Amino acid sequence: MPFEVQDLSGTFSMGDVALALSLSFFLSSMIGYVYRYTHRNVSYSQSYVQTLVILGMLISLIMLVVGSNIARAFALVGALSVVRFRNAIKETRDVGFIFLVMSIGMAAGTRFYSLATVAAVSICLVIVVMFRFNWFASSVHRQVVKVQVPSDGNYTEHIQDVLIQHTDEFELVSLESIRAGSMTEMMYTVRLKKGHEPGQLIAALGERTGGQRVTVLTGYDQTDL
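^ that's the sequence the OP posted. Answer follows.
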């Protein structure tokens, strides 16, 4: 039985490969710069942005390999299904950028070059406009208050009395036993009254809890807790 090596690269030219990979690289890099420019939180990761660029090019390459071959598509799905990612996505927005570069890579890999370019530029403009004009921002600013108290005492009423004095509204969101059960940590979301400062709230809570640790996080919606 003769052994033959079949070259399947004839389904696309080297020019198609170069153009698809170059376009996906350029557009994914543009998306990466838009992500960096519009990023607000403290969890910015250079490796994540680099991964966006790599992912866009990889998807473009995969689409070139698959082409219109259904068997090849199922084989790639089976091969990629064994990959497991352990890093948790910290923001929903990050998932959107992953799908964006994947879509651009798919369009470039299937040689819809105009579609890939127009879609990438249009969506990036929308992202920049939403960032620039702060669309859908909440006008209500809240804080997170963490209070640690000994487990052998009843401090809940004292803490709530202070919160009533200094906040317009508050809500207990978690209650956790720490330090081998010797301490209890309570976490509240609060909205400070006008004219009241976080330092005043910390001092008042410290007096009621016997000087135990009190933490007030402001702008927590832009911070990874």
